[in-house]
Amino acid sequence: MSAMPWPGLRRRFPVLAIRDFRLLLADRLLAPAATAFSLVGVAFAVLDVTGSTADLSYVLAAQILPSLVFAVAGGVVADRIPPQRVIVAANLMIAVGEGGFGVLVLAGHPRLWQMIALETLTGAGMAMFYPASQALLPRLVPASLLQEANAMSRLAMNAAQMGGAAAAGLFVAVAGPGWALATCGAGMIGTVPLLLAIHATGAERTSRTSLTRDLRDGWAEFVSHTWLWVIVAQFCVVLFAWYGGFQVLGPVIARRYLGGPAAWGAITAADAVGLIIGGLISFRFAPRRPMRFVVLIGGACAISPLSLAMRLPLPLVCAAAVGLGVAVEMMMVQWTLALARHIPPGKLARVSSYDVLGSVMAMPAGALAAGPIAAAIGVFPAEYGAAALTAAACLLALVPRGVRSLRSPQIPRPGQEAERVMAGS
User: What is the value of pTM for the model shown?
Assistant: First the structure.
C-alpha cells in the first residue's frame, strides 16, 4: 500500500489508504460519466433516425439480450482470473459498440440492423462487467471496510452519472447524439490504464475444474439461499416494469410533453442526485434485517412511472426521480453487501452472474413490450400498469420467511480496521 497525499481524508475514510481501491474509484468516476452519454445518446439517436418507439424498443432490447449468455460466462471467467481483466475486456467492447454507433450517426443515416448489432456488442460488455465488478471490490479491501468501500464506490459512480447525465442532455441538444456516443466510446477507452494498474489476483482454487462444473457449482450456491433467488425473482418483475416504463417510455413522454432531450437529461440527473443522497446515507446505515429492507424499499421503483402516468410537471417528475434514486441506492448497497458477506469469495462472481441473469432477463421483454403496449393502450395507462406491477412484486417477495429473517453478520468496528490499514500503508 502506498501513502496518499491527503492525510485528513485518510483519517476520515481509511479505505482511501488502499492504492488499488483508489484506482478502482478513479475508474468508477470515469466509466459512469462516459456511459451517461450513451443513455441519452442512444435513445435520441434512434428517435431522430427512425422516429419510432418500437424501433427504440428493439435497439434497447438488443443491448440487454446478450446478458443471457455473457453475464454467466463473465462470472465463470472472473472467478478464474483477476476480475479487473474481465472489466477491461468489457469496457473495450462498450467502447467499440458506442463509439461505432456514434460514427455511423455522424456519417449519415444508420440502418436499424446496424444500430441493433452495435448495441448487442455494447450489451455483451455490460453483461460481463457486473459479475466481475462484484467480485473485485471484496478482494481489494478488508471485511470491516467493505460497507464504506461499497458506499464510496457507488457514490463515485452515481456522482459521475449525475454530472454525465446533465452534461449529456445539453450535449445532445447542442451537438447531437452522434457526438455523445463517440464521447462515451472515448471515455471507456480511458478506463483501461486504471484497471490494468490494479493488482488484485484471481480467487484461490484447489483444483482445476471444467467450465460446466463451475457453472453447476455456481448454480447450486445460488439456489441454496432462499433470500437470494426470491429477491432476484422480485428484481425480474421490477426491472421489467422499470425498463419498459421508465427507460423506453420515459424518453417518449419527455420528447412529446416535457421538452425533449434537455428534459430527459434533467430527469436522469435528478435520479442520479437521489442515488448520491442514498449513497451518503448508506455509509453508516445498517438495517438488522437487510433483505426485508431491500424488498420494502424496492417498492419505490414505482414512483417514477407513476409520476409520468399522472402527467406531473417536469419539476415534480424530477422530484420523483430523486426519491427513486435514494431508494434504489440504499437498496443496492445492502444487496451488494449481502452478496459479499454471505457468498464464498471463490463463487461470488458466478453467483453474481446468476443475479445478473435473473435480474435482467426480463428487461428485454420490458423493452420489447413497452412500445406495442403503449401503442395499444397509450403511454400513460402503460405507466400506471408498470407502477402497479412493481408494487405487487414487492409485496409477494415478503412472503418467504428466509427473506424477512436474514440478519447482517457481526463485523469488527471500522475504527479498529482503520488503525491496522493505516499502520500497514
Answer: 0.72
